[in-house]
Amino acid sequence: MQSTRDRVPAHTSSEINRQIRQEMAGRMRYYDEHRSEMPQRLAVLDQEWDIERAIEANASVLAFVGTLMASRGDRRWLVLPALVTTFLFQHAPGRCRGLAIA
Asked: Each residue of 44-91: pLDDT tens digit?
């Protein structure tokens, strides 16, 4: 499975990828001319969530909500955490390269 860095551009139109590259080049030129602002920008970037983290957080919320609703009496809500954990399990092989499972 490709990394997110490779997978996202591969599924994005070439026009959008071109726009992204142009914007990135512009930001690089800006920070090359304003080097004193670079540490602050890097600190902001360190706080951003990547798509993998956002997916996992959203899945956790959905699984928790399904479990909570099922605990209130309607067991049909257990379908939600079952579906979410199935999705996470399918998503895991791409994240666990090189991980040996005994």
From this structure: 999 998 888 888 899 999 999 999 999 999 999 999 999 999 988 887
Retrieve residue 60's tokens: 């956790």
Contact between residue 85 and residue 74 where contact means Cβ atoms under 8 Å apart: no
The label of the residue with tokens 């955490």 reads: 81
Cα within 13 Å of Cα(60), Cβ side: 6
Q: Are residues 57 and 97 in the same domain?
A: yes
What is the span of the domain harbouring residue 94? 49-102
User: Pick from 46, 45, 42, 50: which is nearest to 7 by CA?
Assistant: 50
Token pair belonging to 62: 């959905």
Residues 1 and 23 in one domain: yes
